[in-house]
User: What shape does this take?
Amino acid sequence: MARRRARELAFRTLFQSERGSEDLLSVWTSVRTELGEAGEDDAERSYGEAYGDPLDSRGIAFADSLLKAYDQHKERIETILGSNVSGWSFNQMAQTDLNVLRLAVTEMYYADNPPEVAIEMAVRLAKKFGGDESGRFVNGVLAKVYREFKNAADDGATSGSTHEAAGELGPGEPADPVAPEAPTDAGAPEPSTDPVAPEEDEAKRER
Assistant: This one.
C-alpha cells in the first residue's frame, strides 16, 4: 500500500510541476512541507491525515527517489517515450496520461521493482485519474517500452555489461509484463481531467 500511495503522491507532484511550469524538485519540497513531513518526526501520522492511510518513511523515500530520478534522467525518459508513442506529440497528449507514463518509465529503468509491476501500477493510476481509454493507452505504450527495455537487458547480458543497458536492472531477466489490459496501439485517447478523482477500492495486492 505504501508504494501505491507513494506513486500517487509523485504523480500529483509531477502534474503540479508540469501544469504550473515550475521546477519539479521545488514543487516536491513545497508538497512535503504542506503535508507536514518536512521537519516532522512523525511522518506517518502527518501523511496519514492527508491521504487517509499512512505513508511511512519508506513510502516517502520511494516517491522522493522516483521524482529525483525523473528530474535527473528526464531527457532520456522523454526520448524513450517519444520513440514509443505513435502519431502524437507530447503537447497533443492528455497531461494526466503523459505524467503517468513518465513516472512508469522512470520506475522501470531506475527503481528496484520488476518492470511488470511498474506497468500494472501505472495502468491502475491511469484508470483512476485519467479518461475512459487512459488505462488501455498507457498499457499499450508501456508494452512497447517494455520490449525495448527487455531487448536492452538482453543485449547488456550478452555483452557482459551490468545494469547499464537496461537502466539498473535487478538480477535475472524480467518476466513478460502482466498488465490488466491487453496491449493496444499507442494512439492517445481523448484528454482527461485533472487528477482529483476519488479513491478507488484498495488494490488486491501491493508490491
